[in-house]
Amino acid sequence: MATSEQSFCVGVRSVMGRCVVLEAAVTPKLQAGDRLRIERVLEAIPDACAGSTALWIGYLSANIGVAEVLYVGTFSVIARYSGVQPIQTGDLATLIGS
Hints:
By secondary structure, this protein is mainly beta. It has a single domain (9-96), classed as Thrombin, subunit H. It is built from no helices and six strands. The protein has strands at 9-16, 19-22, 35-46, 56-72, 77-82, 92-96. The chain has a six-stranded antiparallel barrel. Strand 4 and strand 5 form a beta hairpin. The radius of gyration is 13 Å and the shape is globular. The protein starts with 8 loop residues before the first strand and ends with a strand.
């Protein structure tokens, strides 16, 4: 389990009811049992130097719930979501302390 907040965000790749699949390529430090804050991006500031709207230098988001990591594999990370707002593809997950 994580003991302190980490400085990375990963995207929600797909949603199946209360189970979510996260972008596995950028989640090397996740472990089963870790808790994630799920956020919805309300407004993003793109990185003009990168020439792509996919890279952000900042964003405004709303906390919509939490998820617990159930499985960490080579190509997928699966978590169970609990929150009032429905989760959707493109939301962000940030590791939080336990």
